[in-house]
Amino acid sequence: MKFRMMCLVAPCILAGGALAEVDHWFTITLAGTPAGWAHSVKTLAGDVRTMTNTESMKIGRMNAEVTVISKTVWVDRLDGTPISMEWTQEMGDQPVRTRWDFGGGEMKITMEQGERVTTSTRPAPTTPWLTPGAVADRLAVLAEAGETAFSWYVLVPDLGATPARQTMQRSGGGEITVNGAEYEVSNWDVTIEGLPVSIKTSFSPDWQPVMSTIRTPFGDIESKRSSKSVAIGERIGPAPELLATLFVRPVSGTIKDQSTASRAFLRLRTLDGTTLNLPASGAQSIAGNQDNTVLLQVDRSSGSSPQEEMTQFDQYRSGSTMVDSSDVAITELAAVAISTVPPEASTRERAEALREAVYHWISKKGLTTAFASASETVRSHEGDCSEHGVLLAAMLRAEGIPSRVASGLVWMDGLDAFGWHMWTQAFIDGQWIDLDATLRVPFTVGHILVATSALEDGDGQRELLALLGLLGNLEVEVVRVDL
Q: What angle do CA 26, 32, 37 make, to 5 degrees?
């Protein structure tokens, strides 16, 4: 399982200062291990301000390394009027670019990947919000006036086009040494609604970020001001390992014969005591729930009725950049798969034929792909669980079956542990049905569902960020497995 790259270096505070141009480099470490670099630039042209933040991180995944590059460009006027935001992520062979253009009470969203371009328009947010440049200006004014706590709404690409509340609380200050340089700083605790992590940021007296730390259960992601040569200098040693360190080994019990078992009961709790909210969808239902502890039932033969109204299902039927169901290569592969079942086959049988086709089509199964779209995967024949999940979702939609990706944990035979995973859900006969294209069988009781997503254009990864707060923060007990 992989995640799209988040804006890691002081989200929404790319470079402070009202009028000065800025060019800063940062080193990035994960759990104390060098992982990459960041580059923040602010330029001025008349009353137009452009703020650019580029990040590159390399992460270890067992015996593979994955590099993810993210670039965000905000353009606004010095009075804070937004003009545009562009977010580019290089996760596969072809970068995915999202552009928001603001004006006239509307927001035009354009998604590009290779030659594929999709455009949609929606009303601009009605909640007043600030651009990153306006946040920096407001911070400087309020902090210099002696204010120590304040909040406002911002747009964060990872969270889509809905404003999220950002809160800042001063937590002290003093002199610090960062990459060999001395700085006088003020320290601030930053929270952003929808991001299940805590952020600490240190600013110099001219309100430029010097150091930021994102505290996560799997280790601190830390950025520190540096020179360009230090930031992009050759990294020594392997990339920080992320996949293996996030395996969840059960405190008791095991899952044997998961592919043939009919039902499993699993008890989960958070290690930090926070409330655990897991969905009841597909094969998964809630058998008991108390604060930070949840008893799950996973029934391989079951599905679940949706909580959404059918009128809200367009996002599960329509194509998107990641799930391009209109791609000719995808529609042709889906048609070939459907041709293998008799005309009188049920929708469930058609969906399972599509699942089996994806299992065989992706012949290069490995961990070296970051997060490729369905269109990339159908051509490369390569990927891990994420690629299987998005390709199956696209093929289901191509055949008129609503679909979405599902993320959570899966039992790994031979390792006696749960690993983070992605699969697909199809809406069939009024129920969500789980389908895992990485397996020889349609589904197993060894799956724990945490979040679902339509991977709709323009909405970032808000739905999948529920996983972030659970990485390294879950305890699982296998209570019972029924054959």
A: 25
